[in-house]
Amino acid sequence: MRRPDQQTTMRETAQLPAGGVLGPYLQEQAGDFLRGLRLHREHSAPTDGGSRGTDEAAGALRRSARRIGGSLHTFRGLLDANWADQLRTELAWLSGTLAREHAYATRLARLLEALHALSGTSLPGARTPVGGPGTDKERAALGVGAARAGALLERQLTLARTRAHSAALQALGSSRFHAVADAVALLASDVPLAASAAAPAAEVLYGPVERAEKRLLGAVAALPPDELVEPYNEAQDAPWHQARLLLRLHRYADEVVRGTPDPVLAGAGKALDLHRDASEAASAAAAAARTPRIAPATAYALGVLHADQRHEVEAARSVFRETWPYAAAVTGP
């Protein structure tokens, strides 16, 4: 999976001590985390006029937390293991807490946009083709139910977002968060390396990178062929979500040895992100459809919306297979 430019970069760092490669990367990410925290505090002040700056700062915090946590996982053997495990757990808690508010907002926007598009166009391809029997009646029913379905989704997801926002604020004011921030501040100046990190990078650093790569290739090879997948079986999304997480870990490990993200996997990573978003949006539509005592037209519109998002799941899988640069891994046994 290594391109010539990657191989050159790795040769240049091969004789450096492993700690001399890993340490500066972790310190850089810790610095980014602290800058994100400072921006978040500035934009959270009462005089701040909007939430965009707060959202961007929270995003920066999440990105840095994910990179630090991923590196602590991949390169645990080169670090103080107890310290790495504890900080990784706390960063996962923080990143997950901050991500929920953003996820609900993104999900609502996605579903409302899809509802708007569906209510003014033909139904998804899995349903009766335009011009076929019952199409006009189905379109009329969708038009009646779309507005109510959108209002229901907005109530449910806005409530969930508000609760997530409150949970994030509570987390950022907690002693647990302050302990995490203190640990990251210390990391910015001192990385607790194990004695093995003094060995050349070629001997001890590249092994974990290669293992992260092999786990990713194995997960992609194990993805079920399209012809065996049931489009509306959401339980079958799990291997794709796992591949997304392993791709992220691989990218972070690659950043450590290359210094920059590997652009060749950008398209595949984006496709897996879209897959996750569509899968979660479909689940939200299905959950809304189970709301007691909703009108049949509303339930119908939510059912069409669920089908539309499951089609988006399938489309994201196709894009992933098209953009994955290592075809042999996709079609493996």
Automatic annotation (TrEMBL):
Region described as Disordered: 1-21
Residues that span the membrane, as ranges: none
Domain CHAD, first and last residues per copy: 15-329
Signal peptide: none
Gene3D superfamilies tied to this protein: CHAD domain
Pfam assignment, any one: CHAD
Composition-biased stretches (Polar residues): 1-12
Name of this chain's protein: CHAD domain-containing protein
